[in-house]
Design goal:
Two copies of one chain form a homodimer. By secondary structure, chain A is mostly helical. Helices cover 73% and strands 0% of the residues of chain A. The longest helix of chain A is centred in the middle third of the chain and has 27 residues, at 129-155. Chain A is elongated, with a radius of gyration of 18 Å.
């Protein structure tokens, strides 16, 4: 639900060394997950996407959930390395750009398929502790990034005296909700709601955060 | 994710006529879903909770997903009949009470189990059109309720000139996100975030909606 989903969808993070077997396996997992979705995914279908020796696949991972939790960890490591929120200097512009991207009314097919898969994987966390641990780490990291952005805005005199952790929580939870609603309701209905969420959240954050200049 | 989940969890909606076979089957489905979760649920396990003739179960429903979609529709019909948002006269008090309930930092075991089951069912909508239709209807109804509450606040001079649909979308999407994060992250971590979301959303809505008096 973070920037990594963008990178995943555009394939950026899989521009990796062809000799890197783990990265190749993660790319195969990504393709199989987008093609089949969580419920229909089997470790055999991932194997079919994976052109290298299957010994890594069958000996290192104890079933599809073990591999998918490994995939979530891999994706998060990429996200932590990239720290995409630091690409834009002004903290407000950074928040605005993030929300405009994450809350775009529609997604292209690749981003939509990846979002569907992530929503299905997240739901596994309701009963599987390994998934829950991966998503907790994921949410914690993204929350810290958002908190740091808000704190930087305060320190630079751009934002007023808000509580950075509270603002970060509201933004993050809204993004989780939008990601979920987007792929679990009729696309046209979901697009209309997400368009409203983006406008209302940005207006509301502008009211709460921005110092009058 | 709506008020019905509260009613479900407290068992209110299943205080039905003992001769009502459909309601008894829905109660059995509810119990089986909370006990086993979506992934481990089978139509046989629902049958084990259902004390009446199993002919309804096996002849009327074409597998567990068909029954669960029927269950979602039943739950939503209860919700539409109850219209819980109209219990409190003042529109702001109504919103506040809703958010304090839905964004309570912790849930008792029954509400938590039901929330886990609903998050799992919602994820099915990523690939199953029947679930998607049920959740679209669900979200549409709840969004209309929230919109009507905001509009009433404007008409009564309690709220300023906001866009009721946009405000309703932000509230609803945040609630979907909170419900999802709550059961897909470490409980202590999730509780801390939801506590912040509740406080930030209420403060932000107060800023945006309430007319200075």
């Amino acid at each position: 639900m973070n920037e990594y989903s963008i990178k995943m969808a555009t394939g950026d993070i899989f521009d990796v060394d062809a000799d890197d077997t783990e990265a190749a396996l993660m790319a195969a997992t990504y393709c199989a997950l987008c093609d089949h979705g969580y419920a229909d995914l089997t470790i055999q279908k991932i194997g079919a996407e994976f052109e290298k020796s299957n010994s890594l696949l069958y000996h290192h991972y104890d079933g599809k959930d073990d591999l998918l939790v490994g995939f979530l960890e891999f994706v998060l490591d990429q996200f932590e390395t990239d720290v995409p929120l630091e690409d834009v200097d002004d903290p407000w512009d950074r928040l605005e750009r993030l929300l405009e991207h994450m809350l775009a009314p529609t997604l292209d097919d690749d981003r939509r398929e990846f979002t569907e898969a992530m929503v299905e994987l997240r739901a596994q966390a309701a009963h599987d502790p390994a998934y829950r641990e991966a998503f907790t780490r994921h949410d914690r990291f993204f929350h810290e990034q958002l908190t740091a952005t808000v704190r930087e805005g305060i320190d630079r005199g751009r934002f007023g005296a808000v509580d950075p952790e509270r603002v970060a929580s509201l933004v993050q939870t809204t993004l989780v909700g939008a990601m979920t609603q987007r792929v679990t309701t009729d696309p046209e209905y979901g697009a209309a709601r997400i368009d409203e969420v983006r406008r209302e959240l940005l207006a509301s954050l502008a009211d709460r955060l921005l110092e009058d200049t």
